[in-house]
TrEMBL record:
InterPro entries: LytTR_DNA-bd_dom. It comes from the Bacteria. It holds the Pfam family LytTR. This is HTH LytTR-type domain-containing protein. GO terms for molecular function: DNA binding. Residues 18-104 form the HTH LytTR-type domain.
């Protein structure tokens, strides 16, 4: 009997909350998704953009950028880091106004994870 293994192509069929660290919404429905080792640009409808930007997994850090609050490792000096801080780390900037609220959300996630 032959068993075919189902492989998932993360470049085309990514899971938003699991694979994406942050995304940027551009003009004319162009959204740029940034993962650990890739980034993809996709055209999306207005309804799709509203759906992903209003979800609870992502937080708006500036005018066009939303970060995955479960993937954040550190917030420091106006930057949100998603991996080990250093030369190879992925990060995006956050406004000072939103930095405080984002830190609160990350602390809540850590507290919830510690309870489990």
């Amino acid at each position: 009997m032959t068993v075919a293994l189902e492989t998932r192509n993360s470049y085309e069929n990514f899971v938003l909350e699991k694979d994406i660290m942050y995304f940027r919404v551009g003009e004319h429905g162009l959204v740029s998704f940034h993962g650990k080792n890739f980034h993809i640009k996709k055209r999306m409808s207005t309804e799709q953009i509203i759906e992903i930007t209003t979800g609870s997994a992502f937080f708006k850090v500036n005018t066009d950028c939303y970060v995955n609050t479960h993937k954040i490792v550190q917030i420091q000096d106006g930057k949100v880091f998603f991996e080990v801080k250093g030369a190879d780390s992925k990060y995006t900037s956050v406004t000072k106004l939103r930095q405080y609220r984002l830190k609160e959300i990350v602390q809540q996630h850590k507290a919830e994870a510690a309870k489990k």
